[in-house]
Design a protein that fits this description.
The chain is of the alpha+beta class and 198 residues long. It contains four helices and 13 strands. The protein has two domains: 2-61, Gyrase A, domain 2; 74-196, Cyclophilin-like (Cyclophilin, Beta Barrel). Residues 1-186 form the Carboxyltransferase domain.
């Protein structure tokens, strides 16, 4: 791990892996050091706003191989598996479209971090056959609620936007509502399941 200063009251912790970032995030959340205003997890980084000295001291002595476990919140999303890339995903995995749906719905995912757009969660736990690259040419328009996959992640587009993830289907769930409390459906550490509906 390596620290980089970010302005007067923040620092960015560069981690060796997604697992190390998740362990550091869980450790800080459990300890709640004084002065910490915000934590922003990334794929391999953790931004600490306020209380940086306390967090550094905490993590220097922490056993990140055995981070504290919290009881995760669980979210289930109903999905119509009719995505534009379902056949492509199946062909690249060497399985049928029905088998793709089975693999995607049988797995339990964890929100590793959020970003790209408000409410967009990067979910880990994707079965190995579904770990596929982004599209060579991104789409200029991906509809809100589209469920996709790219690399080791699966996720849901919270609003219409450009995007290059392979699309499995779509959900009618609201992932981001600026008037709700909290506004985002997903938070780091949440567990997510997908349920196939017709």
């Amino acid at each position: 791990m390596r620290w980089r200063r970010c302005g007067e009251d923040a620092a960015l912790l560069d981690c060796e892996s997604l697992d190390e970032m998740r362990a550091a995030h869980a450790t800080v959340l459990a300890a709640r050091p004084a002065g910490v205003v915000d934590l922003v997890p990334g794929a391999r980084s953790l931004l600490v706003v306020g209380g940086v000295a306390a967090v550094r001291a905490l993590l220097e002595d922490a056993d990140l191989a055995h981070p504290p476990a919290a009881e995760p919140r669980e979210v289930t999303l109903d999905v119509r598996y009719d995505g534009e890339d379902l056949s492509l995903i199946a062909a690249d995995a060497g399985i049928s479209p029905d088998a793709v749906v089975s693999l995607h719905t049988e797995a339990v995912y964890t929100v590793a971090f959020t970003g790209f757009a408000p409410g967009f969660g990067y979910l880990t736990g994707l079965p190995a056959p579904l770990r596929q690259p982004r599209l060579e040419t991104p789409r200029t328009r991906v509809p809100a609620g589209s469920v996709g996959l790219a690399g080791e992640f699966t996720g849901v587009y919270p609003r219409e936007s450009p995007g290059g993830w392979r699309l499995l289907g779509h959900t009618s769930a609201t992932l981001f509502d600026p008037h709700a409390d909290p506004p985002a459906l997903f938070a780091p550490g949440d567990r997510v399941r997908f349920r196939s509906v017709r």
